[in-house]
Structures are given as structure tokens and as C-alpha cells.
Design brief:
Elements: H1 2-8, H2 22-55, H3 73-100, E1 114-121, E2 124-129, E3 134-137, E4 139-143, E5 148-154, E6 159-163, E7 167-172, E8 178-182, E9 188-194, E10 206-212, H4 214-227, H5 233-239, E11 248-250, H6 257-263, H7 281-301
Parallel strand pairs: 1-5, 4-10
Antiparallel strand pairs: 1-2, 2-3, 3-11, 5-8, 6-7, 6-9, 9-10
Helix pairs in contact: 2-3, 6-7
């Protein structure tokens, strides 16, 4: 209760308990269920502690004294039975929600998911939209009520991608591609951040995730394509240098960029400093091969992911 009072004075909402999507709602429910089950043990213990301390205080001469008392079957049954039952119930809920909230499990919807590729850099976020052919930095936009399939990796230090109102965090790691499904049930701007300490400017690894209507999303895609510069491979290498960044948008990016980032450390290979996307058969073949390798690593790495 004291914590709730203290938090009420903060400018930010207690975001985890104010979910705006199906994944966030399920995680909030699990938090409530866990808290209630734990309270069944904690509250009586706290009450009994206060009562015992008061009743058996030094100056209370009326408290009954039983120096030879040593066992009570009824008391032992309560002390051990109730926590055991609660642990079993809590375990059952945890197992159920663990399978239901597996990060790579698609969200049931009549809409096809939108794929967004996420790359954590020091100290910024790069978002590439492979289906739309655009990219953004420290800003994310997607349609409301549509599943979003995030593919996540890191070009440098491991980080953790988190939009608290939509779902739990998941790690981004070099040489690995993770998958996370989220969805926003209503339009709005949602706080996003890197939830992992990564050095000097880690606190500035924040971004805005905005859910809009389908029409607004399509209009935004066209606006970015018509008004933003392209992201070249040289531009990406400059962007990947350590440092913070303002919000940026790009009308295009090198084809297969995400796959190249994921596989750049395999067999001592390095990312090419050229190849600006698009039309050569060699580039298409290379990108396809990288994606197959990435999917293999993704399958292997799911056990390390978590909401």
C-alpha cells in the first residue's frame, strides 16, 4: 500500500499494470494471480506476527505460558498444508501462462501480422520494415489491432527490448535472431526502452511505439518513402558507431540488412561495406541463405527468450 502511494506521485503511469494489448493483459493477470496467492500466506503471517508480539510482550502477565508444549497436528497441517497447496496452484498457473505467452507464438487474429526487424545499437534502436522497405531510428509505428511480428538482434552489446504496456521484455543478442509477437488493441503512443544496462548512454535508449489506424499507417509509409533519404550500407556503419541519436526515418535500406547483421560473426565473416540492396541475383541468393541460417538460430534460441 505504501508503494502504491509513493508511485502515485510519479509522472509516469505504472505501465505494466495498464496493458493495451493481449500479451500485456495476460501478463498483468499472472501478476495479479501470483500476488493474490502469495497474499494468502503473507497477510495472515504478518497479522499473526503482530498479534504474537503484542500478546506475549514482556509486561503482559496474563499471557498463558506452556513450557512443555511441543506439537499440534492441526497447527502443523495448516502451517505446511496451505503453502503447499498454494505452491501447487501457483505452479499450475505459471506453467499454463509460460506456454501461452511463449514469445514466438503467433497471436490469433483475422489480420496478417506486420513484420518489423529490431536491431539494438549503442545507444539507439534501428527498426527496419522488410515488407514496406523503410527504416526508422528510435521511433516505431504500426497499425492497431494487428499482430506485430518482431524479429530482434543486436549488432553490439546485448540489450533488452521492452514496450511495457504491450508485453514483457526480450533480449537482443549478437549472432542470434529472436521472435516476439505483440499487439496494441487501441491507438496511442507507448513508451519503449532498452531494459538492459549497456554503458554510458543506456538510459537514452528509449523510443516511442505508436499504434495508429490502418489508413494512417499506410499514409505514414508513403510519407516516409517520399520525404526521407535512403539508408545506405555506409550510412548504416556510421549509424552503428557508439553514440546517441535523434529520431530518424529512411525511405529504403540495404536489402538483407537484418540477416547480414545476424550472420556477420559466423565463421569470422564481416559485414560488407557496400551492396545497397535490391536487384542482383547474387544479393537475393545471399539474403535467402542468410535468412535460412537465421531461422535455424531463431529456433534454437527460443528457450532463452522470455516475456
Amino acid at each position: 500500500m505504501l508503494m502504491a502511494v509513493l508511485l502515485s506521485g510519479c509522472s509516469e503511469q505504472y505501465l505494466v499494470l495498464d496493458p493495451k494489448g493481449p500479451i500485456g493483459e495476460s501478463q498483468r493477470d499472472l501478476i495479479y494471480i501470483s500476488a493474490i496467492l502469495c497474499a494468502i500466506i503473507l497477510i495472515p503471517v504478518l497479522i499473526m506476527t503482530a498479534v504474537i508480539v503484542w500478546k506475549y510482550r514482556e509486561n503482559n502477565k496474563e499471557a498463558q505460558y506452556k513450557p512443555k508444549w511441543e506439537h499440534s497436528t492441526k497447527l502443523e497441517s495448516i502451517v505446511w498444508g496451505v503453502p503447499t497447496i498454494i505452491i501447487i496452484v501457483l505452479a499450475a498457473f505459471t506453467i499454463k501462462y509460460t506456454f501461452d505467452l511463449e514469445p514466438s507464438k503467433a497471436i490469433a487474429s483475422e489480420h496478417e501480422p506486420v513484420t518489423i526487424q529490431v536491431t539494438s545499437l549503442d545507444w539507439k534502436w534501428l527498426f527496419t520494415y522488410p515488407e514496406e522497405g523503410i527504416a526508422t531510428v528510435n521511433y516505431l509505428k504500426f497499425p492497431e489491432d494487428v499482430p506485430i511480428r518482431f524479429q530482434l538482434t543486436s549488432d553490439q552489446a546485448m540489450n533488452s527490448f521492452w514496450i511495457p504496456q504491450l508485453g514483457g521484455q526480450i533480449y537482443t543478442m549478437s549472432g542470434m535472431a529472436m521472435t516476439l509477437y505483440l499487439q496494441a488493441d487501441e491507438a496511442g503512443e507507448y513508451y519503449g526502452s532498452g531494459a538492459n544496462f549497456t554503458g554510458e548512454h543506456f538510459a537514452q535508449m528509449t523510443f516511442t511505439a505508436e499504434a495508429v489506424s490502418g489508413e494512417e499507417y499506410d499514409a505514414w509509409i508513403q510519407e516516409v518513402k517520399s520525404s526521407s533519404q535512403e539508408l545506405t550500407m555506409d550510412g548504416y556503419h556510421k549509424l552503428a558507431e557508439k553514440g546517441t541519436s535523434d529520431v530518424q526515418s529512411f525511405s529504403s535500406f540495404p536489402e538483407g540488412l537484418f540477416e547480414q547483421i545476424v550472420t556477420q560473426y559466423l565463421n569470422g565473416s564481416e559485414m560488407p561495406a557496400h551492396h545497397h540492396g535490391g536487384s542482383s541475383e547474387d544479393a537475393d541468393s545471399e539474403s535467402h541463405g542468410d535468412m535460412e541460417g537465421m531461422e535455424g538460430m531463431e529456433t534454437e534460441s527460443h528457450e532463452h527468450a522470455g516475456h
